[in-house]
Design a protein that fits this description.
globular, glycosyltransferase activity, transferase, seven-stranded parallel β-sheet, alpha/beta, 359 residues
């Protein structure tokens, strides 16, 4: 394959990779480094505290979450969009990870571009926006993520991937259940706590509390933590995840919303730890119930399957990861999309020029 000049445009809320929690920025990092290892020329637009082998264009000195003085968090992103446009001639393709912020500029540009949508799309206000920007090429991170926006210009679904050596499989687990993620109503931590209590197995919680969810934590979750089986750890970094997930009997993922992907699920598979998850959003696409997980419909179903968790072969969990969710596979899939978008853009420009000649 021809060497491509690729711009990766990351959110500025966290560094790339993030110091702690930050799913999108981690994926941008893994994709960037995988593309470089495959011989491509990658430029990363991100915060200045990012660490990468790519050419780094520091839009701001440090991630927005670490700078309490940054009042307007959209302005730096708009600045970044213009910086990318100013440099557009340097690239074969521009890959955005900042949602729709660049649409008004990039949809008028002749430069091939692609946007991975990392978040939830079942938001009413998005309907009018994607009715206008139907031609902007976008990638989904699961097929279920697409459902609310049928009118979007979906080019492909590319599942997330992790470096093969990021986590080592642990085939002999410890004696606790694990919950890893963000504390918010849709993540289902209250159900995870209830599951642990009903089965009588300790639950360790490694979770981030964002400002908007402080009230939920204080009013709903904090009162549930006062129990001998429940241990709240707080946020964990990349290196701490290995032992936290790997030593668990199972990872609990009792989500209550249409999860677009759920990175923690493939982190768990990489550690050879089975997952007990509710059948929402991307879950049935990522996991194979009875092979690397148990997918259930409710709390009662989760409780019932914990007794059978040892029937899941932890080697099968790691095999599921190796087969479908490595960073190399993710990068290869994106390269196919890049080539398609570049070819489509060239064809579109030829058609427009031909129409102009006849008009």
């Amino acid at each position: 394959m021809k060497k491509l000049r690729i711009a990766q445009v990351a959110p500025l809320y966290e560094s790339v990779p993030p110091k702690l929690y930050g799913g999108t920025e981690r994926i941008v990092s893994f994709l960037t480094e995988a593309l470089i290892s495959m011989g491509h020329d990658v430029t990363l637009y991100a915060s200045g505290d990012s660490l990468t082998d790519a050419r780094l264009i520091p839009v701001i000195p440090a991630a927005l979450r670490l700078d309490p003085n940054k009042v307007d968090q959209i302005a730096p992103h708009i600045t970044m969009v213009q910086m990318v446009q100013n440099d557009r001639r340097e690239y074969d393709i521009i890959h955005y990870h900042i949602d729709y912020l660049h649409f008004p500029v990039s949809h008028c540009s002749k430069k091939p571009h692609l946007t991975t949508l990392h978040g939830r799309l079942n938001i009413p206000e998005l309907q009018a926006l994607y009715n206008i920007y139907r031609e902007v090429p976008v990638v989904s991170i699961s097929n279920s993520q697409r459902i609310p926006l049928q009118q979007a210009h979906w080019t492909d679904t590319v599942y997330h991937g992790l470096p093969e050596n990021l986590f080592k499989p642990v085939y002999t687990p410890g004696h606790y259940l694990a919950f890893l993620g963000r504390i918010s109503p849709e993540k289902g931590l209250d159900d995870a706590i209830e599951i642990a209590k009903r089965v009588g197995i300790p639950l360790k919680i490694a979770a981030k509390i964002e400002g908007a969810d402080q009230g939920y934590f204080q009013n709903v979750i904090e009162p549930l933590l006062d129990h001998p089986l429940i241990e709240f750890i707080g946020e964990v970094n990349e290196s701490e995840k290995q032992s936290f997930i790997g030593n668990a009997i199972a990872l609990l993922f009792p989500i209550k919303w249409p999860e677009p992907f759920g990175l923690v699920m493939i982190e768990s598979l990489a550690c050879a730890t089975p997952v007990v998850a509710y059948a929402s959003g991307s879950v049935p696409e990522i996991l194979t119930s009875g092979v690397d997980s148990f997918i259930v419909n409710d709390l009662a179903g989760a409780v019932a399957c914990i007794d059978n968790i040892k029937t899941i072969d932890r080697h099968s969990c790691r095999a599921s990861f190796d087969r479908r969710f490595t960073a190399k596979q993710m990068a290869e899939n994106y390269l196919k999309v890049y080539q398609e978008v570049i070819a489509s853009k060239k064809e579109s420009l030829i058609i427009k020029e031909t129409d102009h000649e006849y008009n």
